[in-house]
Design a protein that fits this description.
It contains 12 helices and 8 strands. It has 324 residues and is an alpha/beta fold. It has 2 domains: 4-186 and 252-322, Alpha/Beta hydrolase fold, catalytic domain (Rossmann fold); 188-249, no CATH class. Strands 1-2-4-3-5-6-7-8 form an 8-stranded mixed beta sheet, with helices on both faces.
Length: 324
């Protein structure tokens, strides 16, 4: 583990994010991932399939895809955690993997419980607060993989999960650092935003995939995400209702407890997640937090007019290099 006395004084200087034409504005930045579907080929690096028994009596197994650079460069393992309805094959996961492998970092793309190869194969399913699963994964990694430490990278729901885990672990977190991209750190606010009329198409898209993944597609009475959280997520995970799920799982109120350097990226024009929760954080009170709040970028978008990679990938690569 690197000396924390050096890490907490870390500062990062990045070029300003400049949206790539014609992907101007939060909606187009967000939708580019669906419309263009960039999926960089990763065949140049051998693929290892890893499985993780959750050991909680469910028999559930999580799946991960591990790839390593051609030469061991003694760099930390980077563990990527996808967002809602995502998987190890999501375009943003593949893009980050390609950039990091080229930079010499080993990468593990994790599929959360019931996602990717585990879809339809688990008794339980991931949710925004299921940090115990992440803890189990980190405990299960072979020492040879973690000898140079671990860096966590989360996107959207997976980013909230990473932040919640770090806050719960505090100084005991067995990682070097973390990066959060477009995290819904106030889940209730995010639910309200996605339910607005202007987000009708997003809402319908997400709810359709949520119902498909949980086998609830035939239940026509579940018409909103909060219905889904009230009737599927909450009762299956010990929450009183959706609001209790949001309250217990939102990472925002916990950020002050994080004790590992954490780069936090979010765009003010994210159409799904209001910036207000980020503006309410007293960033200066926790020197471990490095916020990068941009005027534009959408939701896990950040498609830049100059950079060959998404701006958030440039930022996380620069952050990783600054830790060396």
């Amino acid at each position: 583990m690197a000396d924390s006395s050096n890490l907490i004084s870390l500062r990062l200087t990045l070029p300003a994010f400049r949206p790539r034409w014609p992907w101007i504005g939060g909606d187009l930045q967000t939708m580019r991932n669906w419309l263009v579907k960039p999926k960089p080929p990763l065949d140049a690096w051998p693929l290892e399939n890893l499985t993780f028994d959750m050991a909680d009596g469910t028999g559930d197994v999580l799946h991960g895809l591990l790839q390593r650079p051609a030469e061991d460069q003694s760099r930390p393992l980077v563990l990527l955690v996808h967002g809602l309805t995502g998987s190890s094959d999501s375009s943003y996961m593949r893009a980050t993997t390609s950039h990091l492998l080229r930079a010499g970092y080993p990468v593990l793309r994790l599929n959360l419980r019931g996602a990717g190869p585990g879809r339809g194969q688990t008794r339980q399913f991931y949710h925004a607060g299921r940090s115990a699963d992440l803890e189990r994964i980190l405990q299960s990694l072979a020492p040879a993989l973690t000898q140079h430490s671990i860096v966590l990278v989360g996107y959207s729901l997976g980013a909230n999960l990473v932040l919640k885990y770090l806050a719960e672990q505090g100084a005991a977190a067995p990682v070097l650092a973390a990066i959060s991209i477009s995290a819904p750190i106030d889940l209730h606010a995010a639910q309200r935003r996605i339910a607005t009329p202007r987000n009708h198409l997003y809402h319908r898209h997400l709810l359709g995939y949520m119902k498909r993944d949980r086998g609830a597609e035939l239940d026509s009475t579940i018409r909103t995400i909060i219905d889904f959280d009230n009737r599927v997520v909450a009762p299956n995970n010990g929450f009183k209702d959706a609001l209790d799920y949001y309250r217990q799982s939102s990472a925002g109120p916990m950020l002050g407890s994080i004790r590992r350097p954490t780069l936090i990226i979010h765009a003010a024009d994210d159409p799904w997640i209001p910036i207000d929760a980020y503006r309410a954080v007293s960033w200066s009170e926790n020197p471990y937090l490095l916020p990068q709040l941009t005027p534009s970028g959408g939701h896990v978008g950040f498609h830049d007019q100059v950079l060959a990679m998404p701006w958030h990938d440039y930022a996380l690569a620069a952050f990783l290099e600054s830790l060396r």
